[in-house]
Amino acid sequence: MSSPSIEPVLLEVRDLRKHFPTGQSWLGRGGKLVRAVDGVRFSIAAGETLGLVGESGCGKSTTGKLILRLQDPTAGEIFWRGQAIGNLSQAEMRPVRRELQAVFQDPYSSLNPRIRAADIVAEPLRNFEPMSVAQARERVAHLFEKVGLRADQMVRYPFEFSGGQRQRLGIARALSVEPRLMVCDEPVSALDVSVQAQVINLLMDLQQEFGLSYLFVAHDLAVVEHISHRVAVMYLGRIVEIAPKRTIFTRPQHPYTEALLEAVPRAKPGARQQRRLLVGDVPSPINPPPGCHFHTRCPYAEDRCRIEAPAMQEVSPGQWVACHLRQPNSNPRRSA
């Protein structure tokens, strides 16, 4: 997938944080905080897909919910088309919500089982535009065609669709209000591999036709490589590397990105693959390690990594990395 032409920035996130209180301890003392998102920065341009990857529990889905204002951030700023939306009221958010839509992970639980497919897709339309029943039906039939469903399926209920068809239905619902950015939270992880490819290709076709932007949250690197223009790698609430897709997959700079790529199975029968396996488990977001969060599992960790959190720095055009070993005064022994 080629990179999009340079377009204005639609979404910009600055130092975004979300901390969840765990409640009081049994002694009545104040509880600790779960640092789900801990200082995230990125932007998405018009017509661009940013893939957000990382292990389960690293804060990917929470980041998407904060952007959609399904949850309020603890700190940081979210700018949509230059406007700060983090503190907008529900009434002030209404026109913004039309431009920010979501495609959820589970295509069944995200659909109301008691409502027919046509009404599921038409509900957002009626919420934003007054229209007659005939007008709504015509618009819904057109959307069904766009996502690869038949008009005669409009009278069916969600349980009458397959998993892939239900996800197409969810995409049609998100597309109905003509959004500019769609947050896709693991949209194909619950689908069969062959169906995954169909849905991913559908999203790419819709992007080309309508100029959509995507924040594509996923853990499947093969899917991310296929659909994304840029990729952000997240670990324990922080983004550790962000770069164009080709750069991430050919010249990763952060040790965690290297480990993720080396964990991907290679389709070469009989070939032996040398892998550097990560040692230990992901630390708890309630008590994250000081300094670089990854130093407890990093094979290259130095004393500085255990004390000082690395800042994001540009190591090549468009490639930003948070790693002390990639700073100008770092030990170059890892570059081999």
Observed structural traits:
336 residues, alpha/beta, 8-stranded mixed sheet, 4-stranded antiparallel sheet, 9 helices, globular, disordered C terminus
**What percent of the residues sit in helical stretches (DSSP H or I)?**
25-40%
State the order of secondary-structure elements, H for helix, E for strand.
EEEHEEHEHHHEHEHEEHHEE
Structural class: alpha/beta
Helical stretch tally:
9
* Biggest sheet statistics: 8 strands, mixed
Low-confidence sequence ranges: 1-6, 332-336
Tally of DSSP β-strands: 12
Mean pLDDT across the residues is: 89
Strand share of the residues?
A: 15-25%
What integer value in Å does the Rg equal?
21 Å
Distance between the termini: 30 Å
Strand arrangement in the largest pleated sheet: 6-7-8-3-9-10-12-11
Categorize the overall geometry.
Answer: globular
Summarize the structure in words.
There is one protein chain. The chain is globular. The strands form two sheets. Strands 6-7-8-3-9-10-12-11 form an eight-stranded mixed β-sheet, with helices on both faces. The chain has a four-stranded antiparallel β-sheet with strand order 2-1-4-5, covered by helices on one side. By secondary structure, it is α/β, with parallel strands linked by helices. A hairpin with a 2-residue loop joins strand 4 and strand 5.
